[in-house]
UniProtKB/TrEMBL annotation:
<feature type="coiled-coil region">
    <location>
        <begin position="408"/>
        <end position="460"/>
    </location>
</feature>
<keyword id="KW-0175">Coiled coil</keyword>
<feature type="region of interest" description="Disordered">
    <location>
        <begin position="471"/>
        <end position="502"/>
    </location>
</feature>
<keyword id="KW-0677">Repeat</keyword>
<feature type="repeat" description="ANK">
    <location>
        <begin position="176"/>
        <end position="203"/>
    </location>
</feature>
<dbReference type="InterPro" id="IPR002110">
    <property type="entry name" value="Ankyrin_rpt"/>
</dbReference>
<protein>
    <submittedName>
        <fullName>Ankyrin repeat domain-containing protein 42</fullName>
    </submittedName>
</protein>
<dbReference type="InterPro" id="IPR036770">
    <property type="entry name" value="Ankyrin_rpt-contain_sf"/>
</dbReference>
<feature type="repeat" description="ANK">
    <location>
        <begin position="143"/>
        <end position="175"/>
    </location>
</feature>
<feature type="repeat" description="ANK">
    <location>
        <begin position="77"/>
        <end position="109"/>
    </location>
</feature>
<dbReference type="Pfam" id="PF12796">
    <property type="entry name" value="Ank_2"/>
</dbReference>
<dbReference type="InterPro" id="IPR050776">
    <property type="entry name" value="Ank_Repeat/CDKN_Inhibitor"/>
</dbReference>
<feature type="repeat" description="ANK">
    <location>
        <begin position="44"/>
        <end position="76"/>
    </location>
</feature>
<feature type="repeat" description="ANK">
    <location>
        <begin position="282"/>
        <end position="314"/>
    </location>
</feature>
<feature type="repeat" description="ANK">
    <location>
        <begin position="10"/>
        <end position="42"/>
    </location>
</feature>
<keyword id="KW-0040">ANK repeat</keyword>
<dbReference type="Pfam" id="PF13637">
    <property type="entry name" value="Ank_4"/>
</dbReference>
Length: 502
C-alpha cells in the first residue's frame, strides 16, 4: 500500500482543539506526552470525549474510548457525550458510544435524556438509534415532558412520526396538563398539529381537550397569534377541512422529492420542519428519493442547500447509486460532478485511490465544526483500515491461544450444537426407517398368506365335477306362415344359477 502523503504537524493549544479538528495523530501524541485524556476545558467543562461527540470526530472518539476515556463525565448542564451526540445528530458517534456502554437513560440537570434532546433538535435518525437500543419512548423529564412533547413544541415532524411508530403516547400530558397537540398549536406548527389530530381517538377530542388552565389548542393559538392553527381549526369545525386530507404525513419531504414537488420541498426545508439530510425508516434521505426518480431540479436545489451526497441508506447506496440503479443518467451525471467520482474501475487496496473511492460517510452527522479535506479523510480511512487488519491478526492470535489452553470458541460451540442436532435428527430418521421396514415385512407376510389362500381355493374349485345341463323345447314365432320351430333351452333355477337335474 502506498504511504499517505506527509503533512506538516500542527500545534494545538489544547487537546480539545486537536479533537475538534479530527487530528487523531496529534491527539495520541499529546496523551503520550502526559496530557490527561479526561482533561476538562474551562469554558464548557467539556472533556475530549465531549468534544469528539459534539464535533463528529468519530476517529478521535474511538481512540479515546479505546484508551480509557471516561464515558460518564458530564458538562455544566449535566450532559454526557451521548447528550451532545443527540443534540448534534452525530448518529455514528452515538452508535460508537452505545457499543462502548454509554447510558442512554442518563438525565441532565433538567431530567432530559438523549432522546429528549434528539427530539427537540430534530435529529430523527439519531433518535431512532436511541430507541432501537431499548430506551422508553415515553420517558419523562422533571416537567413531565416526554420526547413527543419536545418534538411537538419545536415542530419536529419527522421525530414526531418516529416516536408515534415506536409507541409514544399522544395522550400524555405535562405538569400543566398540556397534550403534545397543545404545544404544537401554541407554537404554530401546523404540520405537527395536523399529524397529532389525525392520530388521536377523535377530532373532537383533540380540539376540545383542555389543559390545567382550561385552555384548548385553539385558545392557545389565539393567545399566541398563531393564525394558521386558528384557521385550520375553524375549517375543521365548519367541516370545510378534515385532518385526514390528501396531504401525505409520512415523511412529507420524501414524498415531495419522490414526486418532484420542489415548491412543497422548499417550504418544508426552509421553514425548518424537515432537516434536508433527514432519513426515513429505510435510511434514505430526500436526495435518494429525488435521484431515484431523476428530478434534476430538486437535486440541484438540494445541492445548493448543502445536502450531503455521500449519505448511504440501509442498503449501502448513495443517491448516485440509486440514480444509477434506476438508469437516471442525467441525475448520475449531476451527482458525479458534485462527488468528483467518475471512475468505475476496480482498484486494489494497495492503491491509495481505493480509499478515495470507497469512503463510507453514511451519516447525517453535522460537520460544521469538523472540517477535514479530502487528503485528511483519505488518511483517516487508511488508518482505520490498517487498524482493522491489525485487530484481525490480534483476534486470530487470541483465538489460537484460547484453543490451545482448552477453551471453546463461540463458533465451535455453535458448530457442536448443530452437530448434536444433526445426529439427533439422523437417529430419529433411522428409527422411522426401522419402523417402516418392520411394517413392510408384516404386510409382505400377510400378502403371502393371501396368495396361498387364493391358490388353495383355486385347487378346490378345480376338483368340483360339472355335468351337462338338460334342455327344454320352446316355440319360436312363425315366420311368414312357416311352422313353429322347436328350440331347446337349458333349465335354470329362479336365481339364475344352473341346477343339476336328477
Amino acid at each position: 500500500m502506498a504511504p499517505p502523503a506527509v503533512k506538516k504537524k500542527q500545534n494545538y493549544a489544547s487537546i480539545h482543539e486537536a479533537v475538534k479538528t479530527g487530528d487523531v495523530e496529534q491527539l495520541a501524541s499529546m496523551v503520550k506526552s502526559g496530557t490527561n485524556i479526561n482533561e476538562v476545558d474551562l469554558v464548557h467543562k467539556f472533556t475530549p470525549l465531549h468534544c469528539a461527540a459534539h464535533s463528529g470526530s468519530l476517529e478521535c472518539l474511538h481512540w479515546l474510548l479505546w484508551h480509557g476515556a471516561n464515558i460518564t463525565d458530564t458538562t455544566i448542564r449535566g450532559w454526557t457525550a451521548a447528550h451532545l451526540a443527540a443534540i448534534r445528530g452525530q448518529d455514528a458517534c452515538m452508535q460508537a458510544l452505545v457499543i462502548n456502554g454509554a447510558n442512554l437513560e442518563a438525565q441532565d440537570d433538567k431530567g432530559r435524556t438523549p432522546s429528549h434532546l434528539a427530539a427537540a433538535h430534530g435529529q430523527s435518525y439519531t433518535l431512532q438509534t436511541i430507541l432501537r437500543n431499548g430506551v422508553d419512548a415515553n420517558v419523562s423529564d422533571k416537567n413531565d415532558w416526554k420526547p413527543i412533547h419536545y418534538a411537538a413544541f419545536h415542530g419536529r415532524l419527522g421525530c414526531l412520526q418516529l416516536l408515534v411508530r415506536w409507541g409514544a403516547s399522544i395522550d400524555d400530558v405535562d405538569d400543566n396538563g398540556n397534550l403534545p397537540a397543545h404545544l404544537a398549536a401554541m407554537e404554530g406548527h401546523l404540520h405537527c398539529f395536523k399529524f397529532l389530530v389525525s392520530k388521536m381517538a377523535s377530532v373532537a377530542h383533540a380540539l376540545k381537550a383542555r389543559n390545567d388552565h382550561g385552555e384548548t389548542p385553539k385558545d392557545l393559538a389565539q393567545r399566541f397569534y398563531k393564525d394558521n392553527i386558528v384557521e385550520y381549526i375553524d375549517s375543521v369545525e365548519q367541516e370545510r377541512d378534515h385532518p385526514f386530507g390528501q396531504e401525505d404525513l409520512a415523511f412529507p419531504a420524501h414524498v415531495a422529492a419522490f414526486k418532484g414537488d420542489l415548491v412543497t420541498l422548499k417550504r418544508l426545508v426552509e421553514s425548518g420542519i424537515i432537516n434536508i439530510n433527514e432519513r426515513d425508516d429505510k435510511g434514505s434521505t430526500v436526495m435518494h428519493k429525488a435521484a431515484g426518480q431523476g428530478h434534476i431540479n430538486c437535486l440541484q436545489w438540494m445541492i445548493e442547500m448543502g445536502a450531503d451526497c455521500h449519505i448511504t441508506n440501509e442498503a449501502g447506496e448513495t443517491p448516485k447509486d440509486v440514480a444509477r440503479r434506476f438508469a437516471q443518467l442525467a441525475a448520475v451525471e449531476l451527482l458525479t460532478q458534485v462527488t468528483g467520482d467518475n471512475s468505475d474501475e476496480e482498484l486494489d487496496i494497495n492503491d491509495v485511490r481505493f480509499f478515495d473511492r470507497h469512503g463510507v460517510e453514511g451519516s447525517t452527522d453535522s460537520k460544521e465544526d469538523l472540517t477535514l479535506d479530502k487528503v485528511n479523510k483519505r488518511d483517516a480511512r487508511i488508518r482505520a483500515y490498517q487498524k482493522t487488519e491489525e485487530l484481525k491478526q490480534l483476534l486470530e492470535i487470541a483465538c489460537s491461544n484460547y484453543k490451545q489452553l482448552g477453551g471453546i470458541t463461540e463458533e465451535e460451540r455453535v458448530k457442536k450444537k448443530e452437530e448434536r442436532e444433526a445426529d439427533k435428527m439422523v437417529r430419529e430418521l433411522e428409527a422411522q426407517l426401522e419402523y417402516e421396514r418392520v411394517r413392510r415385512e408384516k404386510l409382505e407376510s400377510q400378502l403371502d398368506d393371501c396368495r396361498a389362500e387364493i391358490a388353495r381355493l383355486k385347487e378346490c374349485l378345480g376338483k368340483v365335477p360339472v355335468s351337462p345341463l338338460p334342455t327344454r323345447e320352446i316355440e319360436a314365432p312363425s315366420d311368414l306362415g312357416k311352422e313353429k320351430k322347436k328350440v331347446k333351452k337349458p333349465l335354470s333355477s329362479p336365481g339364475g344359477v344352473f341346477v343339476r337335474r336328477c
